[in-house]
Design brief:
The complex is a heterodimer. By secondary structure, chain A is of the alpha+beta class. Chain A has helices spanning about 15-25, 45-50, 70-80, 90-120, 120-145, 160-165, 170-180, 190-200, 210-225, and strands spanning about 5-10, 35, 60, 65-70. Chain B has helices at about 15-25, 40-45, 65-75, 90-115, 115-135, 150-155, 160-170, 180-190, 195-200, 205-225; strands spanning about 5-10, 30-35, 55-60, 60-65. Classes of the chains: A alpha+beta, B alpha+beta.
Chain lengths: ~230, ~220
């Protein structure tokens, strides 16, 4: 696509939702300006461009109204640059499947991680870890079905669910370490485990997700600003 | 275009979105009513993840989640008037407000309806603030989707009936004509649309059902405190 100074992305590096947009912009070879946001002290730009949710990412395209919400941004980019590395499939059923599982990943699977973070006590945490493991089992089945023997959820090429789930993998590693469990493993989720290694080293993603140290620092900041529940 | 079945409950506003969509597109379909207290094996097979309605079955393949189903219907039966606009920015905007409705508007109003006393008083503020935002979406427009009816009207459509039901059973007044003149004007236009008019569940049955639901929530909350 070449030089495009029209697109700006407001974000913060540790956000997996921001990382998704970066991944898609990279896959589509779209140049853009990155604007760093300080979530501890939200900018005027963020508050005016996303007054409803006050969250990153927010995409700015020329003089058009800003677009928040990572899944909505991805679909917008896919619709304005449909010919370069399409992200969603073109058939309605394939699209419905992808939308359904993205909602599951965000509203059910990843929501468990925040629950795990704030739940006090070993027993409480074990119960949530169990749900996360069950979730990873569901995702393994989904991967097997949608990849149909190929490399990615999207088949031969990275697709929507590869972006949606792939950008959480920095955080899954952190949670695995902090909570001493494996979310993806060779026995329960062999295909997904292979996929996690492939996707994390993908050219368009490998420089996007911050390293463990940066993520841990962010985690500590969140723990401080939004402390866990009291036992 | 194949065999279409809709798994729904008689009262669910989410299922109603799909009824409207199917009727507006002139799609012939069979309705299968579910009793959520006694879910059928078919429902559990078609929506194993969430075990919820609505579920659309098209040529034997299930599609779940009302917003996902709406887009699926729009894309599959694409020779008739489209629900979503063509322009990518307009589509992104529509999707954003659909999410806002489902994430914030519904949940905040539901909360005001199922609580009582101090908890209810506390819940009313956020519900009204969200409705203020909804009101603003109608400025300069006939419908949420613009000049004519579309996707966002299917999404916000529950407000035209269920908000009144929640107000009555919850003992709260949210929509007053001074604060929400545009929502009230939209409601009249929306309810005039033939497909909408003919599809509402029975008013009395809805009141009874949501009265019971509120009592259930209140007694459960009391039991656990």
């Amino acid at each position: 696509m070449g030089k495009n100074t029209e697109i700006k992305l407001l974000g913060t590096p540790p956000s997996p939702f921001v990382n998704r947009v970066q991944f898609v912009l990279n896959l589509k070879s779209i140049e853009y300006e990155y604007i760093d946001e300080n979530l501890a002290c939200k900018s005027e730009l963020l508050l005016t461009s996303n007054p409803v949710y006050k969250k990153v990412p927010v995409l700015f395209h020329g003089n058009k109204p800003p677009i928040p919400e990572s899944l909505i941004i991805i679909e917008y980019l896919d619709e304005i640059y449909p010919d370069i590395h399409p992200i969603l499939p073109s058939d309605p059923l394939g699209r419905a499947d992808n939308h359904f599982w993205a909602n599951y990943i965000d509203n059910k699977f990843f929501a468990l991680f925040e629950e795990l973070r704030i739940t006090p006590g070993k027993e409480g945490k074990e119960a949530i870890k169990k749900q996360i493991i069950e979730g990873s089992g569901l995702l393994e089945e989904t991967f097997v079905k949608l990849s149909n023997g190929k490399t990615y959820f999207g088949g031969d090429n990275v697709g929507y669910l590869d972006v949606v789930l792939g950008c959480f993998l920095g955080w899954t590693k952190i949670f695995e370490k902090l909570n001493e469990f494996n979310i993806f493993d060779e026995v329960r989720t062999p295909k997904l485990l292979e996929w996690t290694n492939r996707i994390r080293s993908h050219e368009s993603l490998k420089d996007v997700i911050p390293g463990s140290e940066a993520l841990m620092n962010f985690y500590m900041m969140v723990m401080k600003h939004k402390p866990p529940r009291v036992a | 275009m194949g065999e279409v079945k809709l798994f729904r409950t008689w009262s669910s506003p989410y299922a109603l979105r799909i009824v409207w969509a199917l009727k507006l597109k002139g799609i012939v379909y069979e309705t299968i009513y579910e009793d959520l207290a006694n879910k059928s094996s078919l429902l559990l097979e078609y929506n194993p993840v969430h075990k919820k309605v609505p579920v659309l079955l098209h040529n034997g393949t299930p599609i779940c989640e009302s917003l996902v189903i709406l887009e699926y219907i729009d894309e599959t039966w694409n020779t008739t008037a489209r629900f979503l606009p063509e322009d990518p920015l307009a589509r992104a905007t529509a999707r954003f407000w659909a999410k806002f409705n489902d994430d914030r508007v519904v949940t905040s109003i539901f909360r005001a309806y199922v609580t009582q006393g101090a908890e209810q008083e506390e819940a009313i503020g956020p519900a009204l603030e969200n409705l203020d935002i909804v009101e603003k979406q109608l400025i300069g427009k006939n419908f949420f989707s613009g000049e004519s009816f579309g996707f966002l009207d299917l999404v916000f459509g529950w407000i035209a009936k269920y908000l009144g039901i929640f107000e009555e059973t919850g003992g709260i007044k949210l929509i007053d004509e001074d604060r929400f003149p545009l929502i009230l004007a939209w409601k009249d236009k929306f309810c005039d649309i033939p497909v909408i008019k003919e599809s509402w569940p029975d008013q009395e049955k809805l009141i009874t059902k949501f009265q019971l639901m509120r009592e259930h929530f209140i007694s459960t909350a009391a039991g656990s405190s």
